[in-house]
Amino acid sequence: MSVNRVIEATSKSGSYTIKISNQKAGTSIAVYAIDASGNKSSSKTVKVIDKTAPPVPTVKKITSKTVTVTGKGENGASKKIGQGVVDNKGNYKVEIKAQKKGSSLKVYAQDKSGNKSKSKTVKVS
Questions:
Q1: DSSP 42-110
Q2: pTM of the predicted model over 0.70
Q3: Is 9 helix (H, G, I), strand (E, B) or coil?
Q4: Cα 8 to the chain's mean position, in Å?
Q5: Residue 1's pLDDT is what?
Q6: 14, 16, 83, 90: which sits with the fewest CB atoms below 10 Å from its CB?
Q7: CB–CB of 56/108 below 8 Å?
Q8: How much is the pLDDT for 79?
Q9: Tens digits of per-residue pLDDT, 68-78?
Q10: Does residue 62 contact residue 125 with C-beta atoms inside 8 Å?
Q11: 85-107: buried (b, 16+ CB within 10 Å) or exposed (e) per residue?
Q12: C-alpha angle with apex 4: 3 to 6, nearest 5 degrees?
């Protein structure tokens, strides 16, 4: 594993805090201790977890005859009004049963890490 940068902190009573810049999800960070005599512990590697919800997806018009919901969202995120996956161009399609005119559908994105966007409510016309 290559090291991009070393950040140091001094432990007080066995505890330490190190402030770091935001890291990309999936980044590995190695943490280790060096005592006053220069002895280095083994490393503990932690992975940065994605905790950022995707943006609210767009939704094209839905009518009482619509059987496919389409729009744009975060690449790889799923939409639960049925369920589908956003392609690498940001588009998705979800097959649904025709809905009654005037009913409302809530559309949201959920990424692979389980983060859920705010919902967008779409009225069936």
A1: PPEEEEPP--PPPPPPP-----TT--EEEEE-STT-EETTTTEE--TTSEEEEE-----TT-EEEE-EE
A2: no
A3: coil
A4: 29
A5: 46
A6: 14
A7: yes
A8: 44
A9: 888 887 776 55
A10: yes
A11: ebeeeeebebeeeebeeeeebeb
A12: 75
Question: Which tokens sit at 51?
Answer: 């905790």
The C-alpha atoms of residue 68 and residue 98 are separated, in whole angstroms, by 9
Q: What is the mean pLDDT of residues 30-57?
A: 85
Residue reference for tokens 């810049």: 21
Provide the token pair at 111: 């990424």
Greater model confidence, 1 or 64: 64
Alpha-carbon span 52 to 49, nearest angstrom: 9
Q: Quote the tokens at residue 92.
A: 């998705």
Both tokens assigned to 41: 């512990």
Confidence of residue 59 (pLDDT cuts 50, 70, 90): confident
Residue that has been written with the tokens 């009913």 in this structure: 103
Cβ–Cβ under 8 Å, residues 17 and 81: no
